[in-house]
Amino acid sequence: ERAQQKLALTIIMFQIIGPFFYWPLYVALLWWSPFTRGMMVAYGIYMWVDRRAHTVPEGDAPVRRLPFWRHLANYFPVKLIKSADLDPAANYMFCAHPHGVASFSHTANFLTESTGFSRTFPGISLYPLLLDAHFAAPFHREIALRAGFRGASKATITNLLTARPGSSVLLIPGGAAEALKAQPGTYDIILNKRKGFARMALTTGAHLVPVLAFGETSLFEVTQPAPGSFMAKVQKLILKLSGFAFPQLAGEGFWPGAKAVRPLPKALPVTTVVGAPIPVKKWEGPTRDNPAFTAAVDELHARYCAALRAIWDEHKDRLAPRAPAGATGAAALTNGVVCYRRKSLEIVE
After folding, report:
1. For the residues 125-133, what does the mean pLDDT come to?
2. Which of 62, 72, 21, 41 is nearest to 145 (CA)?
3. Do the Cβ atoms of 105 and 216 come closer than 8 Å?
4. Which of 84, 118, 316, 327 has the fewest CB atoms nearer than 10 Å to its CB?
5. Which helix (H) or strand (E) holds 66?
6. Residue 20 belongs to what H/E stretch?
7. Is the preceding peptide bond at 165 cis, omega within 30 degrees of 0?
8. Are the C-beta atoms of residues 274 and 209 closer than 8 Å to each other?
């Protein structure tokens, strides 16, 4: 069972770095033999013809329904809590926090069916969003599409949220930048200037659903370089150029007792609370250079932040209590049921 769980984690980690892994594989196959070269040329043509597949809410998602993914949720374990029913006649933007190092709990809950999302929210077709660059990576794009992923461009999100009742998207507003702030027991959220999701909700009429994962940031030990140091500058440069964050981290190894290489997350419990939807009325007037629209965005953003804090306040003492006085080491991280907090949720940027 443990081996299967770590295999599931390894597959997910390879998908996270897919564009860096699959392109060299594709190039290698181009040169491997005349047969593989022909196959890759044909596949490249297919990718070009099918280049808009990630912009429309069509196609099945068999990858996300694989029973194998239960091993992913069981590793931690990950649990999903519903605060309110969702009307399948409406459309929703699920906004998940915090990003953590690699969003493993969000992956288990919303990118697979390992915690029963479709049973919990019947009639909701959820499309997780990825940077469009992922869909230019050979092989990687096929897996992403068949797991239900779609592009994160404004046009694509609009297509998804206006296609049909129940069509919804999942995004993580804090993005990769939030991964660099992940520390065990902390909930530092990047949200103050992230208002694009509020604009999108107003222009499409999609309701906002706040999502908070208790324990996500405790899955890795992250070494944060000193501000202004060479390593800090390198991390920011990579983030700016690629959209990916590469924090210095340590979790668990592939085998018991590993110390040198520990790329897997720690097996700590994560409980995700899906908050009640925030109703949004579609904006019918002009949006560009319109002070009234800007004010509406700010008001909706403030309501969203308040709803996120309300989830924290309601559940923090049960799902993220303080560690017992004097606790050290693993005992200061978790009691086996929940992860302890070191500080309260804070919107830091």
Report:
1. 90
2. 62
3. yes
4. 84
5. none
6. helix 18-32
7. no
8. yes
What are the structure tokens assigned to 71, written together? 């091993």
Range 317-324, long-range pairs (CB < 8 A, 24+ positions): 319/214, 319/215, 319/271, 319/273, 320/185, 320/187, 320/214, 320/215, 323/185
Beta pairing partners, 94: 170, 209
Name the strand (E) or helix (H) holding 248: strand 248-250
The answer to whether the beta carbons of residues 222 and 183 sit under 8 Å apart is yes
> What is the C-alpha R_g of the chain?
21
* Percent residues over pLDDT 90 in the chain: 61
261 vs 253: CA distance, rounded Å: 6
CA distances (Å), origin 56, targets 53, 60, 257: 6, 12, 46
Token output for 258: 């590993």
CA dist 177 and 165 (Å) reads 32
CA torsion angle 108 109 110 114 (round to 10): 70
